[in-house]
Design goal:
β1 and β2 form a beta hairpin. Helices cover 46% and strands 18% of the residues. The chain contains 14 helices and 12 strands.
Length: 428
């Protein structure tokens, strides 16, 4: 990383202020060429930026010497007036300097990772934070970006390393050890290994960050003409689905995202379920409806009949305002999408179910990559606990430690870095 990179790190102009970042060995030289002098570290200084003597803009300049900067390198920021022409002029002046080039997506954060300023779990948290649209997404991503996942994995790794040291000590001094003491050590070590494996498995089994990020999948299902499309439109507050009095209007799945009280949802309207489809197209719609139910986190089941699936469900007495609908059956929520009655009660029931499916505000959540590696570490610890051979126990512990190192990015992660940092914007 001998080159120096620069990029606009704030929003696209025009704006009140535009922030251009520079990171690398020639960052301060670039500041000196444009501003005439490098200001004191971490102190905002007003300077006139010039190119070949001609003024470009008046800007606030901040410099952060490495390795205690955000990237671990010399880092500078120009806080400019946020006009497009101003930004282009500064970028053009920087691009003309030897050794400087425009940054690639996520390159500032990638340098922070390479220089040890953050670990891989924090980089993943930053990516999620940039993409966060709901309050739940923001909180989960902020915890990861602040190092909560790293601290937990380092705790697991540190304890595993202590177990490994106990094993290596016996292996190194096996000739001097008492056989009975070795047996007692193995029994105690097995208990400790199993306890740690269970602790890791408990974390792995919690809802992951994908559920927060992708939203709770809520499927509306039931018989034809039960009012599913009308209810979907009322819940998402727009005309997402076609509504008509003709049974079987919905032939395919219709999806509509919505955000409510900090929780993301993906609602899916489906074809009416029955045993006598009129044609092949309707049968395909029914098959897709059943597939959607199988993939759902929650089903809103519109009467008649009872929901018989394994997915959590809320029974809804729809079209409660229609003449002849009668009293609401026990255990169902009466809703009139046309009048809006019952929608608050239905939303309360949906949110109660959603909060059971999401990690709590103070509960650590892992992403899929982290869960798979943590599960592998737990499996290795379980295998170690079941072994009587110290050499095999030592090898299983090394497997667990490698998995922990892959979670935090200390080992074998290069293959996934391009995909991760491709999610970042230029300048981050």
């Amino acid at each position: 990383m001998s080159d120096t990179i620069f990029a606009l790190s704030s929003g696209r102009p025009p704006a009140a202020i535009a922030v251009v970042r520079i990171s690398g060995p020639d960052a301060f030289a670039a500041v000196e060429r444009l501003a005439g002098a490098v200001p004191p570290p971490r102190r905002a200084s007003l300077r006139t930026l010039r190119r070949e003597g001609a003024p470009i803009d008046q800007a606030l300049i901040l410099v952060f010497p490495g390795p205690t900067s955000a990237t671990g390198e010399n880092l500078a920021e120009f806080h400019l007036h946020g006009g497009l022409a101003v930004v282009r002029a500064v970028e053009s002046a920087l691009a003309a300097m030897p050794g400087l080039r425009g940054a690639e997506a996520g390159e500032f954060t990638r340098r922070a990772l390479a220089n040890g300023r953050i670990d891989l779990t924090q980089a993943e948290g930053l990516a999620d934070l940039l993409a966060a649209e709901s309050e739940g997404q923001r909180r989960a991503a902020k915890r990861a970006a602040d190092g909560a996942v790293r601290r937990q994995i380092e705790d697991f790794s540190g304890r595993s390393l202590a177990f490994s040291a106990r094993v290596e000590a016996v292996l190194d001094h096996g000739d001097e050890a008492d056989v009975a003491a070795d047996r007692d050590m193995l029994r105690s070590l097995g208990d400790d290994l199993l306890a740690l494996a269970v602790e890791i498995e408990t974390l792995v089994e919690r809802p992951g960050v994908e559920r927060i990020r992708d939203g709770i999948r809520v499927v509306l299902a039931g018989a034809p003409n039960a009012g599913k499309s009308t209810l979907l439109n009322a819940l998402v507050q727009r005309e997402a689905a076609i509504v008509s009095p003709i049974a079987g209007t919905t032939r395919d799945r219709i999806e509509a995202p919505v955000m409510r009280n900090g929780i993301a949802y993906l609602f899916t309207d489906t074809a009416g379920l029955h045993d006598a489809p009129a044609d092949m197209v309707e049968q395909i719609g029914i098959d897709r409806a059943r597939a959607a139910i199988d993939m759902a986190d929650l089903v809103l089941w519109l009467d008649p009949g009872e929901f018989a699936g394994a997915v959590p469900a809320i029974a809804v007495h729809s079209r409660a305002d229609d003449p002849g609908r009668g009293q609401t059956p026990t255990g169902r929520i009466a809703v009139s999408a046309h009048l809006g009655t019952g929608l608050d009660a239905l939303w309360s029931a949906i949110e109660a179910q959603a909060r059971n499916l999401l990690p709590g505000d103070d509960v650590l959540a892992l992403n899929l990559r982290q869960r798979e590696l943590a599960a592998g570490a737990a499996a290795a610890l379980r295998a170690a606990a079941a072994e009587n051979d110290l050499l095999l126990i030592a090898e299983r512990l090394r497997e667990a430690l490698r998995a922990f190192d892959r979670i935090t990015g200390r080992a074998d992660v290069e293959a996934m870095l391009d995909a991760l940092f491709g999610r970042f914007c230029i300048g981050k």
